[in-house]
Amino acid sequence: MNDLFPPLPIPRVATADGRTIPVHRIHCIGRNFADHAREMGATPAAPEARGRPVLFQKPADAIVTDGRVAYPSATHELHHEVELVAVLGADAAPGELTRAQAEALVFGYAIGLDLTRRDLQAECKAKSLPWDIGKAFDHSAPISTVIPASEAGDLSALEISLEVNGELRQRGALRDWIWDVPDVLIELSKLYALRRGDLVFTGTPASVAALQRGDRFVARLGGLLALEGEIV
User: Fold this and answer.
1) Is residue 28 in some structural domain?
2) Any idea where the Fumarylacetoacetase-like C-terminal domain is (predicted)?
3) Is residue 110 within 8 Å of 218, Cβ to Cβ?
4) 71: exposed, middle or buried (C-beta count within 10 Å: 0-12, 13-18, 19+)?
5) d(CA 106, CA 87)
6) What are the tens digits of pLDDT across the range 52-77?
7) Cβ–Cβ under 8 Å, residues 200 and 188
8) What is the domain-level CATH number for residue 129?
9) Most buried of 107, 109, 203, 228 (most Cβ within 10 A)?
């Protein structure tokens, strides 16, 4: 069979040792830190009555791996959200995972930004519409290299942070998650087949704010990973 169009390149993220991982799908979770849920006008989920987390997706080709992030169209309010990214290295059919099975799916971790067209998202929320246009756009998922899960160690002992133009904007301890990584994968597996190469953005702490053209940023996962970039 001859393709009508040449195949598009497969988005890939790099590992710290110079290999690459083809990206299958980008899953994201919203309102996973109570302080961020409150600043967005939502009531944080109580641990004993969490229900289903807020889940959404971005296209695989939304990743940016060289740090040069194009300011998106149709917005005047581009917001940063620094997040730990879990990178899956195994498949799981739809169904109920145990915590051990969920943990075994994770190959490694990266640090990334869930960039958001906040004004478009707010318009959609006000009309009770899906807010894909506020989240799932080109260049909306800058991401660092990936380290193996074994090198990250105990995630609850780590912090994520973001500096913009040398000033600290966001900082959050991963022990403050409402849903930790196995929790998120268990919820995702009820809805989707999980695949190796899936990226899971796990939520942001408080103090999201606007980015402008020319801003330089550094996102960090403790002292393990850094993502440096610029809004161009």
Assistant:
1) yes
2) 26-231
3) no
4) middle
5) 6
6) 899 999 999 999 999 999 999 999 99
7) yes
8) 3.90.850.10
9) 203
Number of domain units in the chain: 1
The pair of structure tokens assigned to 13 is 């993220």
Name the pairing type of β-strands 82-88 and 141-142.
unpaired
Nearby residues of 225 by Cβ (< 8 Å), 6 or more positions away:
109, 110, 111, 144, 145, 147
130 falls within a domain: yes
Residue-wise pLDDT for 113-141, tens only, equals: 999 999 999 999 999 999 999 999 999 99
In this prediction, residue 48 carries a pLDDT of: 57
> Does 37 fall in a domain?
yes
